[in-house]
């Protein structure tokens, strides 16, 4: 029998060595079960004990009677305990020690990488030396565990965990299944309101249910709902501006609108249209004003206000 890290094995107590613990054997090799790794009553010589095999902090093969969150080859969602900029993420493992998710398993863009508190779907594996480490679970591991989304989910808001984040979009494991797994979904990049981290908890709306039961998602509300919120946000912004004006209009670049208001240009234009129809704002050139402010300005003030506001904006 091989003492393989990541496995649970039944071994015989060969001897006790104080102040360390018990040496266990499979009749070929021995491994130390330290006193601190005991659970329940102390074993006796020749007793058989069930232990988990791992490598300790000094890279020595060791045993524990504690139970980890997953075994070799298994998948689970583990919480990020700490992040190291060069090594990767350290995950809660259930043994009072952390499991490394190497930097090579993380997204290239730092903004897509997990932060402490995020929860990442991982598979337990080995490095070249046989020590335990995690690797990010992919579609091969997640795919067989999901179920098809019901049609009733259309336009419903759901929650889930980001399993992969790329430039083109973020993949999400949506809640709803047993043992923590549910429906597989994608939030395309245009439907993200901000970059999403691997392992981040996210809320999104189901926009489309594919034939295979997977879903497309959006972090944006329905147009009629979002239009009201966006309009309120723009109106509040204008009321806080000196002179009630801002250097943004229908002609503003999409990137500028996204950076300033966190919405798409189409959503921005819909909100402006709503405010204009209600007579709350007006536009002059590339500027937008509160209607009362625009009516109160004289021609001279019209020419001076944008210059002042531009300097403020810069």
From TrEMBL:
Residues 293-314 are annotated as: Disordered. InterPro entries: CvfB_fam, CvfB_S1_2nd, CvfB_S1_3rd, CvfB_S1_st, CvfB_WH, NA-bd_OB-fold, S1_domain, WH-like_DNA-bd_sf. GO terms for molecular function: nucleic acid binding. Residues 155-220 form the S1 motif domain. It holds the Pfam family CvfB_1st. SMART domains: S1. Residues 293-307 have a biased composition (Low complexity). It comes from the Bacteria. Belongs to the CvfB family. PANTHER family: CONSERVED VIRULENCE FACTOR B (PTHR37296). This is S1 motif domain-containing protein. It comes from Paenibacillus catalpae.
């Amino acid at each position: 029998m091989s003492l393989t890290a990541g496995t649970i094995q039944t071994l015989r107590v060969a001897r006790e060595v104080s102040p360390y613990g018990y040496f266990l054997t499979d009749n070929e090799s021995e491994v130390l079960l330290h006193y601190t790794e005991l659970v329940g009553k102390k074993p006796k010589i020749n007793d058989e004990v069930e232990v988990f095999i791992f490598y300790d902090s000094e890279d020595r093969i060791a045993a524990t009677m504690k139970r980890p969150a997953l075994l070799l080859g298994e998948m689970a969602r583990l919480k990020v305990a700490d992040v190291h900029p060069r090594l990767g993420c350290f995950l809660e493992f259930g043994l009072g020690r952390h499991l490394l998710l190497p930097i090579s398993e993380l997204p290239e863009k730092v903004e897509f990488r997990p932060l402490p508190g995020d929860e990442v779907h991982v598979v337990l594996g080995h490095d070249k030396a046989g020590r335990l480490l995690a690797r990010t679970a992919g579609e091969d591991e997640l795919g067989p565990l999901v179920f098809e989304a019901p049609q009733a989910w259309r336009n419903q808001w759901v929650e889930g965990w980001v399993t992969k984040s790329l430039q083109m979009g973020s993949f999400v494991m949506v809640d709803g299944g047993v043992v923590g797994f549910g429906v597989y979904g994608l939030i395309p990049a245009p439907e993200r309101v901000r970059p999403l981290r691997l392992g981040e908890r996210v809320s999104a709306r189901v926009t489309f249910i594919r034939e295979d039961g997977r879903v497309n998602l959006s972090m944006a509300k329905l147009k009629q709902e979002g239009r009201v919120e966006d309009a309120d946000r723009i109106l509040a912004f204008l009321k806080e501006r000196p002179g009630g004006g801002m250097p943004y209009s229908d002609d503003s670049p999409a990137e500028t609108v996204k950076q300033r208001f966190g919405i798409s240009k189409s959503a921005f234009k819909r909100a402006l249209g709503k405010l204009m129809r209600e007579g709350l704002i007006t536009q002059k050139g590339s500027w937008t004003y509160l209607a009362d402010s625009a009516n109160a300005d004289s021609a001279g003030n019209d020419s001076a206000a944008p210059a002042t506001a531009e300097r403020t904006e810069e």
